Amino acid sequence: MNSSLLIAGAALLACCTAAYGASSKLAPSDEAAAFKAAGFTLKGKQWRSCDDPTPTYSPGAIAEVRDLNGDGRPEAVITEGGTYCYGHTGAAYTLVSKQADGRWKAMGGGTGIATFLPTKGKGGWPDIEVGGPGFCFPVVRWNGKEYKFNRHQYEGKACRPNR
User: Angle at CA 140, nearest 5°, toward 108 and 138?
Assistant: First the structure.
């Protein structure tokens, strides 16, 4: 693999972690339940959903915890990184939400860097711009059941991705 691609992936991942902040505000039991809801498995001391053997891999981390939809319960953004599993983007996210019964549920996720927007979908859930390489990013919106593609934008303006 091209070493400049590995360096670029590592730099992007470092940027993602810094942008989200690396602190978790969850109790250890909630943290474990959030990772499990996101499809991660504890291997040694690392939460993993990708079996990346490369040195640029960054294991699962809770990048952000806050109430996104105003229901009084926390949501968490779980990130993982590495070009082996996530290509040129080098990062993935999963949004999980604590439910009224105390269980955690995966709300959505994918390859890219999640940025929460002021625009909202059903139930007060924020739209998510899914960033990565390039200049025209997909935005997904909660429809009451799942996050689905809504539009493309760059710096808040509509755009059309190059094909």
Answer: 120
